[in-house]
Design goal:
Rossmann fold, six-stranded mixed sheet, RutC-like_sf, 15 strands, 6PGDH_NADP-bd, 60s Ribosomal Protein L30, Chain: A, NAD(P)-bd_dom_sf, N-(1-d-carboxylethyl)-l-norvaline Dehydrogenase, domain 2, NADP binding, six-stranded parallel sheet, 3-hydroxyisobutyrate dehydrogenase, 14 helices, 3 domains
Length: about 400
């Protein structure tokens, strides 16, 4: 078995510098490690080397850490990194993506590359302080090799085999997040019934809910703090954890989806306290995931209604509104299918859940190029499909627009 990673000889690659990733990468630098970082939106960490691409970031790394937003982002970034991965390297996946995504990653990675799933409990301040709880799952040899490095982030709890850390994280979040939503609805009920909120919190503080009450009291009394655990990420966790036994978690997820539709996705999860006091749940939810470029404000990327997810037509425009891959049907098709995959993943779906796909092409003679890309993404039994040729799309240079309808399992 290869030796454990040391602080001097081995280089660590850190992919993802968001709210959690940046302070965690900084902890590694401060602990004396050689670190190369990459982020989709260019960012730097003092003392670390900044790479221009995932493949460049991992090229010399023995240990690769990912801390990204969702399963689609992790799959996409590791696919981009794959050409640079060294045989014998270990990937430590620290995002919250669930055991199914971990298993899919294992299938996609070369057999000579190790994989540990190690999501964390804790928010931004514990990430800065090195007091996170790391829930690690993997083969014994892979866990042993990265145990010392994971200790830089906080207490390491080795849960079991591959996927066990990811499963444990979702199980824990299925209790923690709904508990906050329940408390938010309790406070809203108290206010509507004329109960003094401060007194209500004092009474609840004397029960077994006391620790949670004191943790969220500042947000109730003063409004949500700076984002520590994003509300949209809490929704993502509950979507990933969807299971027929979790009726309370499903209700909490729906409450948070309403808050996200009201524009609170980027706020701290405690923003649900203010939302619960004023909002009425809607049977139709408008969705605009942060994982894809924003719309122009005249439409939503998707809507949920009943058991269906309706995804708006996606085109090859980058976040700045510039056409991607002008004149290249394959490039535009890849970009569009990637956007669809991210929107589906935001609601816990994959292309396997798609019931109908509608495609608009400006040149039907290029159908085969689009079809080859589509087959790489839709690998199972294909859904119902409509493909039409149009004279033009709404922006010059666009060659393709694709929309889908997907079925949401009853527990989601």
């Amino acid at each position: 078995m290869p030796p454990a990673f040391s602080t001097v000889e081995d280089m660590i690659s850190f992919l993802g510098l968001g709210h959690m990733g940046a302070p965690m990468a900084r902890r590694l630098v401060e602990a004396g490690h050689k670190v190369t970082v990459w982020n989709r939106t260019p960012r730097t960490v003092e003392g670390a080397v900044t790479a221009a691409s995932p493949a460049e970031a991992v090229a010399e790394a023995e240990l690769v850490i990912t801390m990204l937003s969702d399963p689609a982002a992790v799959k996409r970034v590791l696919a981009d990194a794959a050409p640079g991965l060294r045989p014998g390297a270990v990937i430590v996946e620290m995002s919250t993506i669930g055991p199914e995504a971990v298993a899919e990653l294992r299938d996609r990675l070369p057999s000579q590359v190790g994989l540990v799933d190690a999501p964390v409990l804790g928010s931004v301040q514990p990430a800065r302080d090195g007091t996170l709880t790391v829930l690690a799952g993997g083969l014994p040899g892979d866990l042993e090799r990265c145990r010392e490095i994971l200790g830089v982030f906080g207490q390491v709890r080795e849960i079991g085999g591959p996927g066990s850390g990811a499963a444990m994280k979702l199980a824990v979040m299925s209790a923690m997040v709904p508990a906050q939503v329940l408390l938010a609805e309790t406070v809203a009920y108290g206010e509507a019934s004329g109960v003094d909120v401060g007194t209500l919190l004092d009474v609840l503080g004397g029960t077994f809910l006391g620790a949670l009450v004191e943790r969220v009291r500042p947000a109730i009394e003063n409004g949500p703090p700076e984002t520590r655990h994003g509300l949209a990420l809490a929704v993502k966790d509950l979507v990933l954890a969807s299971h027929e036994t979790q009726t309370l978690a499903a209700a909490a997820r729906d409450r948070l989806l309403d808050a996200t539709a009201a524009g609170l996705g980027g706020a701290d999860v405690t923003a649900v306290f203010g939302h619960a006091a004023t909002a009425r749940p809607s049977r139709v939810r408008k969705l605009n995931p942060a994982s894809v470029p924003a719309t122009n404000g005249y439409y939503s990327h998707a809507t949920r209604a009943g058991g269906l997810l309706f995804v708006s037509g996606q085109v090859a425009l980058d976040p700045g509104g510039k056409v991607v891959g002008e004149g290249d049907m394959t490039r535009q098709s890849e970009y569009v299918m990637d956007l669809l995959e991210r929107i589906l993943a935001d609601q816990g779906c994959t292309f396997d859940d798609v019931t109908h796909i509608r495609t608009h092409l400006t040149d039907m003679s290029l159908l085969a190029e689009y079809g080859a890309v589509r087959q790489r993404h839709i690998t199972g039994e294909p859904p119902a499909s409509t493909t039409v040729e149009v004279s033009r799309l709404f922006r010059p240079g666009l060659m393709i627009e694709v929309e889908v309808i997907a079925a949401l399992p009853a527990t989601r």
